[in-house]
Amino acid sequence: MQTPFLSMIHRVTILTLAAGLSASMPVRAEEAAPAAPAASEPTKPISDALPPDPEADPFLNEEHFVMQWAVLGPFKFAAEDFGGGDQQEAATHEFIPNEADLTFDTPAPEGTSWIVKKFVGEAQPGQVNLEAMYDGIDHAAVYAVAYIHCDKAMENLTLWTGSDDYITVWINGKKVMSYDAKRRGSDWDQDQTQGVTLQQGENRIVAKVVDVVGGYDFYFRFSNADDLPVMIKPR
């Protein structure tokens, strides 16, 4: 028969061994914390340009405008920069190096970010509303990038743009238009640029849009030599 003292030693030994086994046992897979899901990459904003349909509704609607963009910004500046006043010099300022060659893969500089969005016209069809995106921001510039795919080359197009306030456009790295005359409110077809070509395959569009104060938006569409609007279908 064990003495009380020996029974105590026996119990302590068992508890010590059990603790040692518990500490050395591996954690089972189902007990481990689940790994955080990988962040999904934004989808590249690609649209298809379709030849105009002579039988289609002649009135402009959302399908006649480029509405799917990757927007990089905002690039802020002060009310005193660029000479103050209407600040037209902001329209020609490079807010990012090699702006004509900007792509969706370009890293966003500090203080800016990429936002990919299919816009829906609010004031009227075709409006790309940057005012709402940036909560009424003033004194700022953004770059909007879109990729337009054509099954075959589309030549002798007219590019129609409107902006509040200034806009510059590059297509496949070539500057095709710029408006920097004076501040304005936006509307359809304020600027007409003729002789534009979209090549077969992918076309990279870069638009720099500069706001001084007030509203902030732009419009962007194409028509053919017969003034029929090109259809733009986001993928």
Q: Can you tell me the CATH topology?
A: Jelly Rolls
Helical proportion? 10-25%
Estimated structural class: mainly beta
Quick check: average pLDDT? 85
The stretches of 5 or more residues where confidence is low (pLDDT under 50) are 1-39
How many structural domains in the coordinates? 1
CATH class: Mainly Beta
Coarse shape: globular
The end-to-end span amounts to 86 Å
- What is the helix/strand order? HEEEEHEEEEEEEE
Tally of helical segments: 2
Largest sheet: 8 strands, mixed
Radius of gyration over all CA atoms, rounded: 29 Å
Strand percentage lies at 35-45%
Number of strands: 12
**The CATH architecture:** Sandwich
Task: Provide structural commentary.
- There is one protein chain.
- With 235 residues, the chain is mostly beta strands.
- The protein has a single domain (46-234), classed as Jelly Rolls.
- The protein is 11% helix and 37% strand.
- It is built from two helices and twelve strands; from the N terminus they run H-E-E-E-E-H-E-E-E-E-E-E-E-E.
- It has helices at residues 4-24, 130-133, and strands at residues 46-50, 68-76, 113-118, 128-129, 140-150, 154-164, 166-171, 174-179, 191-198, 201-211, 217-223, 231-234.
- The strands form two sheets. Strands 1, 2, 3, 5, 7, 8, 10 and 12 form an eight-stranded mixed β-sheet that branches.
- The longest helix is centred in the first third of the chain and has 21 residues, at 4-24.
- The radius of gyration is 29 Å and the shape is globular.
- The termini are far apart.
- Residues 1-39 have low confidence and may be disordered.
